[in-house]
Amino acid sequence: MKEYASVFLLSLTSLGYVGIMLGLMVEFIPSEIVLAYGGYLVSQGKISFFEAVIAGIIGGTIAQWFLYWIGRFGGRPFLKKYGKYLFIHEKHINVAESWFTKYGPGVIFSARFIPIVRHAISIPAGISKMSFKKFTLYTILAIIPWSMLFIYLGNKLGDNWGRINETANPYVQLVIVIVILATVLYFLFTVFKKKRTKFE
Predict the structure, then answer these.
(1) Rg (the chain; Cα; Å)
(2) What's the CA gap between 109 and 91, in Å, rounded?
(3) Which region among 74-83, 117-126, 127-136 has the lowest average model confidence (pLDDT)?
(4) What is the DSSP string of the chain?
(5) Separation CA 188–CA 172 (nearest Å)
(6) What pLDDT does residue 174 have?
(7) Which of 37, 72, 94, 195 would disulfide-bridge 126, Cβ 3.0–4.6 Å?
């Protein structure tokens, strides 16, 4: 991790679970790093596992709300002009929009586990004016296991929490495979259901 990012992270997380929440909201550092450090704080007895998970859910959800409302009220013109300041480029939006168009609102859950797409997927949801309640539900359902995984691993790693990417990689790869398979099955089921309804 770059030195300035490390200092920023340590400054935030010194606030305990509030710092974890803020770290996830600003999207300045990858969520897995923030959550892993939260797990380290759990291992030090500074916060509880439950508090860390709740902070992860709240911070992660608010961060996605922010992107959703940008998509809903700013759309592509705003993102083309200011997206780089949010670390989201047009290619990320294109991929996310393609996924959203192809697989529908349900992809809000599955895309959270896929690199590149997971942060940008909230934008096409906002552009398409997806139900905010449904968007929030799918987002929270995905953030819960994501937060629990990285906080748990950070807790187990303790002082070695900085090795989180290396340690988590096998778990993340497995989750990605499962999510992709589930997404394909969901898509096939949706197509089959539409065709069946058409011929009834």
Answers:
(1) 18
(2) 20
(3) 74-83
(4) --HHHHHHHHHHHTTTHHHHHHHHHHTSS-HHHHHHHHHHHHHTTSS-HHHHHHHHHHHHHHHHHHHHHHHHHTHHHHHHHHGGGGT--HHHHHHHHHHHHHH-TTHHHHGGGSTTHHHHTHHHHHHTT--HHHHHHHHHHHHHHHHHHHHHHHHHHGGGGGGHHHHHHHHHHHHHHHHHHHHHHHHHHHHHHHHHHHH-
(5) 24
(6) 61
(7) 72
pLDDT in tens, 55-112: 999 999 998 998 888 888 877 777 777 666 666 767 767 777 776 777 667 777 777 7
CA quadruple 7, 165, 29, 37: dihedral positive or negative?
negative
Q: For residue 199, is pLDDT > 70?
A: no
1 token code pair: 């991790």
Answer whether residue 3 shows pLDDT above 60.
no
Sign of the dihedral through C-alpha 165, 107, 84, 15: negative
Task: Tell the residue number behind the tokens 């990417």, with chain if given.
Answer: 165
Nearest-angstrom CA–CA distance, 43 and 188? 43
- The mean per-residue pLDDT over the stretch 188-194 comes to 65
